[in-house]
Amino acid sequence: TRISRPERILAYVKKHAVPGDAESVANAIDAYCSGVEWAMNIGIDKGKILDRVVSETDPDTVLELGTYCGYSTVRIGKLLRPEARLITIEMNPDYAKVAKQIIALAGLDSKVEILVGSSSELIPQLKKKLDIKTLDLVFIDHWKECYLPDTRCLEESGLLHKGTVLLADNVVCPGAPEYVKYIRNSSRYRSEYFSSRLEYLQVEDGLEKSVFLG
Ligand SMILES: Cc1ncnc2c1ncn2[C@@H]1O[C@H](/C=C/CNC(=O)c2cc(-c3ccc(F)cc3)cc(O)c2O)C[C@H]1O
Ligand SMILES: [Mg+2]
Fold first, then answer.
1. How far is the CA of 50 from the centre of ligand 1 (A)?
2. Claim: this prediction has a pTM higher than 0.95
């Protein structure tokens, strides 16, 4: 069988990116997905909103749900302070294998830890296994029907503090209606919608930023 789309992306990044240069890795993935074949990375337009939220939050500890090829992992990782940590959870071992190489190529492996498994199983273990107290930023970009149950799990695991930022991709396309309904109606969050476009296309999509109020 042909190599997978993530492996085709990895091959292109190996050929076109500069090792240790995270920006060139993200640019190579964007060039491939704009010019050769679409992939479900957050992309350039929503990526700029992600960059702004990460920079404004200036987090010590970040959790990402849904690594895929590691594109947003690299975009976030390159903005973090040296002592900050980014934990990213990916249930598909083949995707995790590609992401690990892309993150290493970007020179970010010292800041990033990839956990292979289901978020619903791993979130309750984060405090014990990874000595994490609380999370400053959570980027949510995995299966859309998992956004809400995992957010509830983060709350119940005591991983959110007053001011923790949740940033969810695809709240318009493909959409995460249960998550949006919950988070916008909850008195425990202050939410804001950032309108943008679906990665590499002219379709509307956007990000929902929600600050946990404790
Ligand atoms: C529960 C759980 N735990 C750990 N990893 C998990 C997990 N659920 C999915 N994952 C992992 O995240 C990744 C999944 C992401 C799901 N993202 C999507 O389905 C997705 C889909 C689109 C899209 C838009 C328009 C279209 F016409 C077609 C597709 C765009 C996007 O930005 C997306 O993130 C890979 C998967 O292995
Ligand atoms: Mg997405």
1. 17
2. yes
